[in-house]
Amino acid sequence: MKRVICTICLMIVLSIIGCGGRRPQIVVANQRNDRFLSCEAMAREMVQNEVLITEKLKRDRSKLLSNIFWLIWFPPLMDVKEAEKSEAEALQRRNNRLETLMLDKDCDLGNIKAEILKIRLERQVVTRSSEEKRKARQRSRSHFRGW
Questions:
Q1: What's residue 25's pLDDT?
Q2: With the C-alpha atoms ordered 126, 127, 132, 134, is the resulting torsion angle positive or negative?
Q3: Which of 47, 64, 89, 99 sits a CA distance of 20 to 30 A from 37?
Q4: CB-CB contact of 42 with 98 (8 Å)
Q5: Are the C-beta atoms of 52 and 89 separated by less than 8 Å?
Q6: What does pTM read for this prediction?
């Protein structure tokens, strides 16, 4: 009887483990209508993808606290599928493909590269400012420990 109960409990826990997180929705790098896209359409899509990458990486970083919470209270509900990270990588592959297509069509990449670089720099500034805040909190905590 005890063995049956243990087996049932194990089955329940294993079934719940599969619920942690969501499946990534990957963007395909090579799409059917790519050859028909204009230079402007590809440039717009590249900028949109870069903004989405930024949002997904922010969500991926904020998920750390939620995973710590679930690790303490109920580990099977931790989000271990890393959907945001996988989706951001797929969007980056799509942008690389669009850049190749733009080069093949002799599109002007100067403006689009500048805009994407601006978005990436903003993403780094946000990351650095949050890291600096964290380090400042740690310094203040260590400063007050000596009191």
A1: 81
A2: positive
A3: 89
A4: yes
A5: no
A6: 0.66
